[in-house]
Amino acid sequence: MPELPEVEHVVRALRVVVGRSIIAGEIRLPKLIAPLSVSTFNRKIKSCLIRGISRRGKFILIELAGSADVPSAQRAKRAQSLIIAVHLRMTGKFLYLNADDELPKHSHAIFYLDNDRRLVFRDQRQFGVMKLISSSELSQTKGISELAPEPFGDEFNLDYFKSVLKRSRRSLKTLLLDQTKVLGLGNIYAAEALFRARINPFKNASELSSQRAARLHQSIIEVLHDAITDSSTSRVDLEQADGFSYGEAFERFWQVYEREGEPCVKCGAKIRRETHGGRSTYWCPKCQRR
Ligand SMILES: [Zn+2]
Question: How many angstroms is it from 266 CA to the middle of ligand 1?
Protein backbone atom coordinates (compact mmCIF):
# COMPACT_ATOMS: atom_id res chain seq x y z
CA MET A 1 0.00 0.00 0.00
CA PRO A 2 1.50 3.35 -0.97
CA GLU A 3 2.35 5.68 1.90
CA LEU A 4 1.92 9.43 1.83
CA PRO A 5 5.25 10.26 0.12
CA GLU A 6 4.44 7.86 -2.71
CA VAL A 7 0.97 9.39 -3.09
CA GLU A 8 2.57 12.83 -3.21
CA HIS A 9 4.79 11.60 -6.06
CA VAL A 10 1.71 10.38 -7.93
CA VAL A 11 0.08 13.80 -7.39
CA ARG A 12 3.11 15.58 -8.83
CA ALA A 13 3.26 13.25 -11.83
CA LEU A 14 -0.47 13.69 -12.47
CA ARG A 15 -0.08 17.46 -12.81
CA VAL A 16 0.77 16.75 -16.45
CA VAL A 17 -3.01 16.72 -17.12
CA VAL A 18 -3.73 20.10 -15.52
CA GLY A 19 -5.26 22.42 -18.10
CA ARG A 20 -6.76 19.57 -20.13
CA SER A 21 -10.49 19.06 -20.57
CA ILE A 22 -12.28 15.77 -20.14
CA ILE A 23 -14.08 14.94 -23.39
CA ALA A 24 -15.77 11.91 -21.86
CA GLY A 25 -15.45 9.40 -19.08
CA GLU A 26 -15.83 5.63 -19.22
CA ILE A 27 -16.37 3.67 -16.03
CA ARG A 28 -15.96 -0.10 -16.39
CA LEU A 29 -16.30 -0.95 -12.71
CA PRO A 30 -19.43 0.72 -11.31
CA LYS A 31 -18.56 -0.06 -7.67
CA LEU A 32 -15.49 2.18 -8.02
CA ILE A 33 -17.67 5.31 -8.13
CA ALA A 34 -20.62 4.09 -6.03
CA PRO A 35 -22.99 5.33 -4.74
CA LEU A 36 -23.10 7.52 -7.86
CA SER A 37 -24.38 5.85 -11.03
CA VAL A 38 -22.09 5.56 -14.02
CA SER A 39 -24.35 7.77 -16.12
CA THR A 40 -24.50 10.53 -13.49
CA PHE A 41 -20.75 10.42 -13.01
CA ASN A 42 -20.08 10.65 -16.74
CA ARG A 43 -22.62 13.43 -17.25
CA LYS A 44 -21.12 15.53 -14.46
CA ILE A 45 -17.49 15.28 -15.55
CA LYS A 46 -18.13 15.67 -19.29
CA SER A 47 -16.40 18.75 -20.73
CA CYS A 48 -14.93 19.71 -17.37
CA LEU A 49 -11.55 21.36 -17.22
CA ILE A 50 -8.91 19.79 -14.96
CA ARG A 51 -7.98 22.79 -12.86
CA GLY A 52 -5.50 21.25 -10.50
CA ILE A 53 -4.28 18.10 -8.76
CA SER A 54 -3.75 18.13 -5.02
CA ARG A 55 -3.85 15.82 -2.04
CA ARG A 56 -5.54 15.49 1.34
CA GLY A 57 -4.02 12.65 3.31
CA LYS A 58 -3.75 9.81 0.83
CA PHE A 59 -6.70 11.04 -1.23
CA ILE A 60 -5.65 12.39 -4.62
CA LEU A 61 -7.88 15.33 -5.52
CA ILE A 62 -8.56 15.98 -9.19
CA GLU A 63 -10.09 19.46 -9.21
CA LEU A 64 -12.56 20.18 -12.00
CA ALA A 65 -14.22 23.29 -13.32
CA GLY A 66 -16.83 23.82 -16.02
CA SER A 67 -15.22 23.94 -19.44
CA ALA A 68 -15.14 27.10 -21.56
CA ASP A 69 -16.58 25.02 -24.42
CA VAL A 70 -19.82 24.54 -22.56
CA PRO A 71 -22.55 27.14 -23.21
CA SER A 72 -22.65 29.77 -20.50
CA ALA A 73 -26.04 28.71 -19.08
CA GLN A 74 -24.73 25.22 -18.45
CA ARG A 75 -21.47 26.57 -17.13
CA ALA A 76 -23.34 28.64 -14.56
CA LYS A 77 -24.99 25.46 -13.30
CA ARG A 78 -21.54 24.10 -12.72
CA ALA A 79 -20.35 27.20 -10.91
CA GLN A 80 -19.66 24.99 -7.96
CA SER A 81 -16.49 23.15 -8.83
CA LEU A 82 -16.19 19.39 -8.56
CA ILE A 83 -13.50 17.14 -7.19
CA ILE A 84 -12.74 13.55 -8.08
CA ALA A 85 -11.22 12.19 -4.86
CA VAL A 86 -9.24 9.02 -5.47
CA HIS A 87 -7.75 6.65 -2.92
CA LEU A 88 -5.31 4.16 -4.44
CA ARG A 89 -5.55 1.69 -1.53
CA MET A 90 -3.57 -1.48 -2.34
CA THR A 91 -3.01 -1.52 -6.08
CA GLY A 92 -4.63 1.56 -7.63
CA LYS A 93 -2.50 3.27 -10.29
CA PHE A 94 -2.89 6.03 -12.83
CA LEU A 95 -1.65 5.81 -16.38
CA TYR A 96 -1.42 8.48 -19.04
CA LEU A 97 -1.80 6.78 -22.39
CA ASN A 98 -1.87 7.70 -26.05
CA ALA A 99 -5.03 7.00 -28.01
CA ASP A 100 -3.49 3.94 -29.67
CA ASP A 101 -1.75 2.49 -26.61
CA GLU A 102 -3.18 -0.83 -25.54
CA LEU A 103 -5.40 -0.57 -22.51
CA PRO A 104 -3.90 -2.74 -19.75
CA LYS A 105 -5.90 -5.25 -17.72
CA HIS A 106 -7.91 -3.93 -14.77
CA SER A 107 -8.49 -0.52 -16.35
CA HIS A 108 -11.62 0.55 -14.46
CA ALA A 109 -11.91 4.24 -15.29
CA ILE A 110 -10.84 5.99 -18.49
CA PHE A 111 -10.90 9.74 -18.99
CA TYR A 112 -10.65 10.82 -22.63
CA LEU A 113 -8.82 14.13 -22.76
CA ASP A 114 -8.86 16.93 -25.33
CA ASN A 115 -5.29 16.17 -26.46
CA ASP A 116 -6.18 12.68 -27.74
CA ARG A 117 -4.70 11.07 -24.68
CA ARG A 118 -6.35 9.06 -21.93
CA LEU A 119 -5.97 9.20 -18.19
CA VAL A 120 -6.59 5.65 -16.98
CA PHE A 121 -7.16 4.32 -13.48
CA ARG A 122 -6.30 0.66 -13.11
CA ASP A 123 -6.59 -1.37 -9.97
CA GLN A 124 -5.95 -5.08 -9.88
CA ARG A 125 -7.34 -5.74 -6.39
CA GLN A 126 -10.28 -3.33 -6.77
CA PHE A 127 -10.01 -1.72 -3.34
CA GLY A 128 -9.49 1.74 -4.83
CA VAL A 129 -12.10 4.43 -4.31
CA MET A 130 -13.21 7.23 -6.62
CA LYS A 131 -15.69 9.78 -5.26
CA LEU A 132 -17.12 12.66 -7.24
CA ILE A 133 -17.99 15.45 -4.83
CA SER A 134 -18.45 19.19 -4.90
CA SER A 135 -15.50 21.09 -3.50
CA SER A 136 -17.65 22.45 -0.66
CA GLU A 137 -18.38 18.88 0.46
CA LEU A 138 -14.73 17.89 0.65
CA SER A 139 -14.11 18.61 4.32
CA GLN A 140 -17.24 16.65 5.32
CA THR A 141 -16.50 13.63 3.17
CA LYS A 142 -16.14 10.32 4.99
CA GLY A 143 -12.51 9.28 5.09
CA ILE A 144 -11.38 12.90 4.73
CA SER A 145 -13.30 14.69 7.50
CA GLU A 146 -11.64 12.53 10.19
CA LEU A 147 -8.07 13.20 9.06
CA ALA A 148 -5.53 14.92 11.28
CA PRO A 149 -3.88 18.11 9.96
CA GLU A 150 -1.43 17.80 7.05
CA PRO A 151 2.10 17.15 8.33
CA PHE A 152 3.57 20.15 6.47
CA GLY A 153 0.80 22.57 7.46
CA ASP A 154 0.83 25.11 10.28
CA GLU A 155 -1.82 23.19 12.19
CA PHE A 156 0.50 20.26 12.76
CA ASN A 157 2.61 22.21 15.21
CA LEU A 158 4.35 21.06 18.38
CA ASP A 159 1.48 22.15 20.64
CA TYR A 160 -0.93 20.08 18.60
CA PHE A 161 1.39 17.07 18.68
CA LYS A 162 1.96 17.32 22.42
CA SER A 163 -1.78 17.50 23.11
CA VAL A 164 -2.32 14.37 21.00
CA LEU A 165 0.41 12.54 22.91
CA LYS A 166 -0.93 13.60 26.29
CA ARG A 167 -4.46 12.37 25.54
CA SER A 168 -3.36 9.01 24.15
CA ARG A 169 -3.33 5.78 26.12
CA ARG A 170 -1.56 3.87 23.41
CA SER A 171 2.01 3.11 22.45
CA LEU A 172 3.80 5.61 20.25
CA LYS A 173 3.93 3.20 17.35
CA THR A 174 0.18 2.60 17.43
CA LEU A 175 -0.60 6.28 17.86
CA LEU A 176 1.62 7.33 14.97
CA LEU A 177 -0.31 5.04 12.63
CA ASP A 178 -3.67 6.62 13.55
CA GLN A 179 -4.36 9.01 10.66
CA THR A 180 -6.98 10.86 12.71
CA LYS A 181 -4.24 11.90 15.16
CA VAL A 182 -1.02 12.10 13.15
CA LEU A 183 -1.34 12.20 9.39
CA GLY A 184 1.08 10.74 6.91
CA LEU A 185 2.94 7.93 8.63
CA GLY A 186 2.30 4.34 7.61
CA ASN A 187 4.17 1.37 8.98
CA ILE A 188 7.39 2.27 7.17
CA TYR A 189 7.72 5.93 8.05
CA ALA A 190 6.45 5.50 11.62
CA ALA A 191 9.39 3.14 12.21
CA GLU A 192 11.79 5.52 10.47
CA ALA A 193 10.60 8.60 12.38
CA LEU A 194 10.96 6.82 15.75
CA PHE A 195 14.45 5.65 14.80
CA ARG A 196 15.52 9.15 13.81
CA ALA A 197 14.21 10.52 17.08
CA ARG A 198 15.91 7.63 18.98
CA ILE A 199 12.68 6.76 20.79
CA ASN A 200 11.36 3.30 21.65
CA PRO A 201 8.24 2.42 19.62
CA PHE A 202 6.56 0.62 22.53
CA LYS A 203 6.70 3.57 24.90
CA ASN A 204 3.38 4.97 26.11
CA ALA A 205 2.61 8.09 24.11
CA SER A 206 1.45 10.04 27.17
CA GLU A 207 4.75 9.44 28.97
CA LEU A 208 6.98 11.10 26.41
CA SER A 209 8.93 14.06 27.83
CA SER A 210 8.43 17.47 26.28
CA GLN A 211 11.94 17.51 24.88
CA ARG A 212 11.59 14.10 23.26
CA ALA A 213 8.13 14.98 21.94
CA ALA A 214 9.75 17.90 20.14
CA ARG A 215 12.40 15.60 18.69
CA LEU A 216 9.80 13.14 17.46
CA HIS A 217 7.65 15.92 15.98
CA GLN A 218 10.68 17.17 14.06
CA SER A 219 11.57 13.64 12.91
CA ILE A 220 8.07 13.01 11.56
CA ILE A 221 8.23 16.11 9.40
CA GLU A 222 11.80 15.40 8.30
CA VAL A 223 11.28 11.77 7.39
CA LEU A 224 8.25 12.61 5.24
CA HIS A 225 9.96 15.60 3.70
CA ASP A 226 13.05 13.58 2.83
CA ALA A 227 11.02 10.73 1.35
CA ILE A 228 9.24 13.21 -0.91
CA THR A 229 12.23 15.30 -1.96
CA ASP A 230 14.96 12.66 -2.24
CA SER A 231 15.21 12.36 -6.00
CA SER A 232 16.31 8.73 -5.76
CA THR A 233 12.93 7.79 -4.33
CA SER A 234 10.80 9.23 -7.13
CA ARG A 235 9.86 6.61 -9.64
CA VAL A 236 6.38 7.37 -10.84
CA ASP A 237 6.04 6.93 -14.57
CA LEU A 238 2.48 7.40 -15.75
CA GLU A 239 3.28 6.17 -19.23
CA GLN A 240 4.20 2.62 -18.30
CA ALA A 241 1.66 0.11 -17.11
CA ASP A 242 4.12 -1.38 -14.66
CA GLY A 243 6.48 1.55 -14.67
CA PHE A 244 6.45 2.11 -10.97
CA SER A 245 6.00 0.14 -7.83
CA TYR A 246 5.36 1.59 -4.45
CA GLY A 247 7.94 1.09 -1.79
CA GLU A 248 10.67 -0.64 -3.75
CA ALA A 249 12.29 2.59 -4.85
CA PHE A 250 12.46 3.72 -1.23
CA GLU A 251 14.41 0.82 0.17
CA ARG A 252 17.74 2.58 0.12
CA PHE A 253 16.20 5.33 2.17
CA TRP A 254 15.01 3.02 4.96
CA GLN A 255 17.24 2.77 8.01
CA VAL A 256 15.34 0.26 10.13
CA TYR A 257 12.29 -0.84 8.16
CA GLU A 258 12.69 -4.44 6.91
CA ARG A 259 16.24 -4.54 8.23
CA GLU A 260 15.78 -7.14 10.96
CA GLY A 261 19.15 -8.63 11.95
CA GLU A 262 21.16 -6.04 9.99
CA PRO A 263 23.55 -3.73 11.83
CA CYS A 264 22.13 -0.36 12.89
CA VAL A 265 23.48 2.41 10.66
CA LYS A 266 24.25 4.49 13.76
CA CYS A 267 25.60 2.04 16.34
CA GLY A 268 26.01 -1.36 14.70
CA ALA A 269 23.60 -3.21 17.02
CA LYS A 270 21.29 -5.70 15.31
CA ILE A 271 17.94 -4.22 14.26
CA ARG A 272 15.04 -6.04 15.87
CA ARG A 273 11.54 -6.77 14.70
CA GLU A 274 8.47 -7.44 16.77
CA THR A 275 4.81 -7.75 15.87
CA HIS A 276 2.93 -5.01 17.62
CA GLY A 277 -0.75 -4.27 17.06
CA GLY A 278 -0.72 -6.74 14.17
CA ARG A 279 2.07 -4.90 12.33
CA SER A 280 5.81 -5.49 12.20
CA THR A 281 7.79 -2.94 14.14
CA TYR A 282 11.51 -2.47 13.52
CA TRP A 283 13.83 -0.71 15.94
CA CYS A 284 17.38 -0.55 17.23
CA PRO A 285 17.56 -1.94 20.77
CA LYS A 286 20.50 0.31 21.58
CA CYS A 287 19.59 3.65 19.95
CA GLN A 288 15.93 3.30 20.88
CA ARG A 289 16.28 1.88 24.36
CA ARG A 290 13.60 4.05 25.94
ZN1 LIG B 1 21.52 1.80 16.84
Answer: 5
Question: What's the pLDDT tens digit per position in 143-182?
Answer: 999 999 999 999 999 999 999 999 999 999 999 999 999 9
pLDDT in tens, 206-257: 999 999 999 999 999 999 999 888 765 556 778 776 545 444 555 667 899 9
Known catalytic residue: 258?
A: no
Catalytic-role residue among 2, 5, 151, 201: 2
* Active-site option among 58, 93, 118, 181: 58
Query: How far, in Å, from the CA of 274 to the mean position of ligand 1?
Result: 16
Mean pLDDT value across the chain: 90
Query: For this structure, is 262 an active site residue?
Result: no
9 and 136 inside one domain: yes
**E runs forming strands in the chain:** 22-27, 49-56, 59-65, 82-87, 92-98, 107-113, 117-123, 129-134, 272-276, 279-283
| Residue 90 belongs to domain spanning | 4-140
Whole-number Å distance, alpha carbon 284 to ligand 1 midpoint, is 5
- Residues near ion ligand 1 (CB < 5 Å) are 264, 266-267, 269, 284, 286-287
Is the residue at 234 inside a domain?
yes
**Cα 287 to ligand 1 centroid, rounded to whole Å:** 4
* Residue 58 annotated in active site: yes
Residue at 217 is within a domain: yes
Q: How many other C-beta atoms can be found within 10 angstroms of the C-beta atom of residue 223?
A: 26
Tell me: do 228 and 132 sit in the same domain. Answer: no
The reply to whether 3 belongs to the active site is yes
Q: Which residues contact 119 (CB under 8 A, 6 or more apart)?
A: 14, 17, 94, 95, 96, 110, 111, 113
- Give the pLDDT confidence of 17-56 residue by residue, as tens digits: 999 999 999 999 999 999 999 999 999 999 999 999 999 9
Q: Is position 150 within any domain?
A: no
In a domain, 132, yes or no: yes
Residue 224 maps to which CATH number?
Answer: 1.10.8.50
Count CB-CB contacts under 10 A for residue 290: 9
